[in-house]
């Protein structure tokens, strides 16, 4: 059925549409931003601040403007006095129209800085703009006004109430020169200011444009000779030119070049957050010289995001670039920094007696894998934290004699030897490097725990400190969990998944000893048994793969360490027979001494398994799990006959499929004809 509108009905419809549009236009032009604020439950608190501010009220009544409005949550979180005029600008701008800098209405018209990141997010100073809540209106006085809702209060640089000198809208040098007049809490900047003056680098801090300045506070110069190390290059290393970096708008993955970036010296800077959301900045001297050591220096940001007329200032707890403490002194300095990234690690060292610091000092060159504060909060750590002897063993597992930076770790991985001995008996740490230079991830395994290095190469005069995200030596996962997360064991995990062999390995009521071939071990079989290797990872041969893995899995009332197996072999003076998932395993285990690295004389006692006339090296012994132990081996216990290439089940299965298909075709043909 077709419905036709009469000409009279159409006229009524048009008149109604015109009236509706007219009413909407009246509402659009008559509403003010003040009305919008009052009716928006997200920002009603800021509405009250404007209502009681006569200047802001007048602006909204009479002028065009842009208004940045903090949410109620932001207003209630902020402890200081909120300056409404710093949230206003006299030029109306939509999100697209926002320029890099906007003069605010606050006294002296200090700039607001706009940042657009690669995610498409937009920030004003350190506040994120919720673009879906942005509103544009035209007042009855034909004034265009724009409102942007932000997630933080905008805070200008202000003078102390006691200041007798009037300073408005200072640049970075004027701020540094007269820092005692400004509200920067208890922080004092006199030492660094003296060095900038002595080195005649004032012009760097006076540079017009938009830059980022890191300024160390006086507390960071407790080392008596540290201030003398702040030379012209070090000062350059505290400035990022032509980029205004407010912390919330930055990605921790972004690396920024400093003013100290030329042929003879190259220094970059990154932001870094620990798990407690504390902000740090780390400088990395990629190319150094006799006065400037390569490596990372980590500094906590004490007061961030101080806007000045030529950029932004961040106050940090110590100078960047300067490497002037030993590893022991670095750890001892943590007692003065209650909020430091490694505060809990230092506390654990002191709780077990503090002798570890003396051990570290006696080693000469040394490298520490230091767990972050958050890493110590794991429930499995809480269960043993009171056991001093156990905790001392665990701490020692994090200490390597010698200087081991990421570059040396990468070189070791190239040589297929990513392992270094710790000072804990015969315990080793095993490193793995994944990704490329722009997205490189370094992991370390020790005592059954895989950790990621989250801050590498913190340089000291006698070594390095790497911050890791887990405590080594305290297992937190089952045998299955270990296979699933260890990048070196992915092939064994994958083979166990499609054969359903892995299902049992999560059982915490059993105790497993599992000889696990690492990925490179399976790759070796590709050359020895190419046809077998190909079928190991085919689902049609899942039964055969399962049988091979059952040979590698011991199930008993207790676990077998490699030392125990070697002692059993020596006592038996012959092969030992061990209970596996299927039948038994007949092996010998021998100890052998090997050189660890080509570039030094470090040796270690390793283990070799003798099975079916093969010598299989144990690459990583005694990887502890919550329901057993893993021994990572360099070759699988595998023979060519383990998978039947022709005439076996795969061929029978294929032949059956062909016969069945032919039978179906014949049946169809019979019915058709």
UniProtKB/TrEMBL annotation:
It holds the Pfam family Fasciclin. The keyword Transmembrane helix applies. InterPro entries: Adhesion/Biosynth-related (IPR050904), FAS1_dom_sf (IPR036378), FAS1_domain (IPR000782). It comes from the Eukaryota. PANTHER family: FASCICLIN-1 (PTHR10900:SF80), PERIOSTIN-RELATED (PTHR10900). Residues 30-154, 169-320, 329-472, 476-637 form the FAS1 domain. Keywords: Membrane, Transmembrane, Transmembrane helix. The chain crosses the membrane at residues 12-34. This is Fasciclin-1 isoform X3. It comes from Glossina fuscipes. The keyword Zinc does not apply.
